Amino acid sequence: MSGRSSMPGGMGGMPGMGGTRRKTRGFDEDDDMNGSTFNFSNGMPNMPRAQTRSSTSSTPSEITRPLRVSLKELYSGTVKHLKVGRRLLNGSTEEKVYDIQIHPGWKSGTKVRFARAGNEQPNGEPQDLVFVVEEKPDETFSREGNDLVCRVPISLLDALTGVGGKKVVELLDGRKLQVSVPFGIVKPGQETTIPNEGMPIRKDGSVKSKGDLIVKWDVRFPDRLTPAQQEGLKGVLS
């Protein structure tokens, strides 16, 4: 079984007519952003409105577009600029650029809705335009709820001899955190938890706390051993 230890935080498109730009400012309702929807009308957030569609039409009342965001951007926040075209009833296409503010702590599935900004429908009711956040994979970190997980390599020799020491982990905001290697034998997959170094947790429109950083120790085994090394290990481990 893998163990877990804890330590305090370390140091630290479409062609069309002339385009227009719509700026947005997001807002938060609670600390569980997964699946939350933010509504905008004329560039400002508003309360959710009733969805309507013609009873004789099968056209959806909304059109969705993916909003691909890196884990780093979800950690620190950013503004994404997306150009989207919509079809008008006269057969032309109108193109707009949407500036969407990504707040720290948002999750995959978070929705940003622009009322009546989608394609114009024959019944006279324009569709809503909905952007859905999709988290892009990160090379170093993965996200588990509000926690961040990373794998840190350690040699088999260091894992067996329990020399301790420190490893440096560069966080998503660029800070370099020194993480202590556990003393004693370190098993593959053993974990060290650093509190309050995970993803931001939003509450009432601002970041109130953070999740944890979980370091999983990745014990690196050699590709081969010489006969002499094999005999030496047999003498030590038998």
TrEMBL record:
Keywords: Chaperone. GO terms for biological process: protein folding; translational initiation. SUPFAM superfamilies: HSP40/DnaJ peptide-binding domain (SSF49493). It comes from the Eukaryota. Residues 9-19 have a biased composition (Gly residues). Residues 1-63 are annotated as: Disordered. Residues 34-62 have a biased composition (Polar residues). InterPro entries: DnaJ_C, DnaJ_subfamily_B, HSP40/DnaJ_pept-bd. One of its GO terms (cellular component) is cytosol. It holds the Pfam family DnaJ_C. CDD domains: DnaJ_C (cd10747). Residues 65-222 form the Chaperone DnaJ C-terminal domain. GO terms for molecular function: protein-folding chaperone binding; unfolded protein binding. The keyword Hydrolase does not apply. Transmembrane segments: none annotated. This is HSP40/DnaJ peptide-binding protein. It comes from Armillaria gallica.
